[in-house]
Write a structure and sequence with these properties.
This protein has 2 helices and no strands. The protein has about 45 residues and is mostly helical.
């Protein structure tokens, strides 16, 4: 497991952090999809 994933797992134990993380999840999923598509098509 990467250091980031370990840190995230620890942070998600905090209910306030976990709630905010889940609230923002859709926004970050869109960003990841855009970045992935741009990478696949070699766009800058």
């Amino acid at each position: 497991m990467s250091e980031f994933k370990k840190h995230l797992a620890e942070m998600l134990k905090d209910p306030e952090f976990a709630s905010e993380y889940e609230r923002l999840r859709p926004e970050y999923e869109v960003m990841r999809a855009v970045i992935q598509a741009r990478t696949e098509y070699s766009l800058t």
